[in-house]
Amino acid sequence: MMYHLLKKLDYKLQFETAAAHCDIPCKIYDPISAQIAVLTMIRLVDLLNELQEKIPFNQEQKVKFIRLVAQKELHGSKVKEEILVIWGDYIKEPQLEKFPELHRLVHNIMTETSKAKQRVDKEITLSLLAKVNRFADIFWQTKGQATFVAHCPYPPAQSLVYPLLNS
Amino acid sequence: MTFLGFKIWKVTGHSMFPRIPESSYVLVCHWLKKMRLKPEQTILVHSQKYGVIIKTVALIDSNGFIWCKGENLSSISVEEIGPVSRHQVIGKVLSVFKK
Predict the structure, then answer these.
(1) Looking at residues B72-99, what average pLDDT do you find?
(2) In the prediction, which pLDDT does A25 show?
(3) Is B51 an interface residue toward A (CB < 8 Å)?
(4) Is the separation of the CB atoms in B24 and B9 below 8 Å?
(5) Which stretches does DSSP call E strand in chain A?
(6) B99 CA to chain A: closest CA distance, Å?
(7) CATH number, domain containing residue A55
(8) For B10, which of A2, A10, A21 is closest by C-beta distance?
């Protein structure tokens, strides 16, 4: 009864929250977040290149430029984070034995993401996508899941490795 | 909203389960923190790394620093939380209201 009363009061007063932080091994891993983050970086590079033709920028274009760069940075960090979580938390000795290229591949993804953040270069982002796709392919193989490659049905319309899931 | 040093807080996260499940409410006394803390008391702490967290006192070391723990295996560890000083303690949990 007291709980329900507090819940109603919470709805009105919005009590402050205290976090009971946890680090649950929830076993939910999926490289799609990293893949989409790279796609976003590619799209942002396209938009930045389009914007370059409008130099000198007016006020609105300056704001757009800043936002595009900020988002590219953000999604670069996301690529790194998503890959590192799978690499650090999911990948274990049996996967490393089966795919000895994994450490090198992850390290290359890290350095290439840094390059993609530093530069406005589509070639670098496409090369990064190829590596992240390879990582996704390995990930799904470790799950015994077949994959297929398809163009994402939205800009920048690049190839992605998807798991072939049965309904 | 604080009333006479008492305040209701809502809990997020699972590290204090089952005693304090997620979405529970806790009544916290803000002036009891000035009294001596003991292990196994539940407190609210302002952590520089994690913000306001609710944890149980694991131990108080010889320098007076408080080391906190969660109450199940999913919690971040005592070492990850790190030592906190008395100034970072917001208050002591007096009651838990759960579903």
Answers:
(1) 87
(2) 58
(3) yes
(4) no
(5) 17-19, 147-151, 159-163
(6) 6
(7) 1.20.120.400
(8) A10
Between CA B13 and CA B54 the distance in angstroms is 10
Q: Looking at residue B45, which CATH number applies to its domain?
A: 2.10.109.10
Give the residue numbers spanning the domain of A53: 29-163
Q: Give me the domain span that covers residue B85.
A: 2-97
Which of A15, A19, A24 is facing B74, going by the closest CB pair?
A24
Tally of domains within chain A = 1
Q: How far apart are the C-alpha atoms of B4 and B72, rounded to whole Å?
A: 32
pTM of the predicted model as reported, rounded to 2 decimal places: 0.60
A34/chain B closest Cα distance in angstroms: 25
- The answer to whether residue A17 is domain-embedded is no
Q: Which residues contact A128 (CB under 8 A, 6 or more apart)?
A: A38, A41, A79, A109, A112, A113, A116
Residue A137 sits at the vertex; the CA angle it makes with A37 and A69, to the nearest 5 degrees, is 15
Are A15 and B12 an interchain contact pair (Cβ–Cβ within 8 Å)?
no
A12 located within any domain: no
Tell me how far the alpha carbon of residue B41 is from its chain's centroid: 8
Question: Could you list the pLDDT tens digit for every one of the 167 residues in chain A?
Answer: 789 999 999 988 889 998 887 665 566 789 999 999 999 999 999 999 999 999 999 999 999 999 999 999 999 999 999 999 899 888 888 889 999 999 999 999 999 999 999 999 999 999 999 999 999 999 999 989 999 999 999 999 999 999 998 76
In whole angstroms, what is the distance from residue B91 CA to residue B35 CA?
10
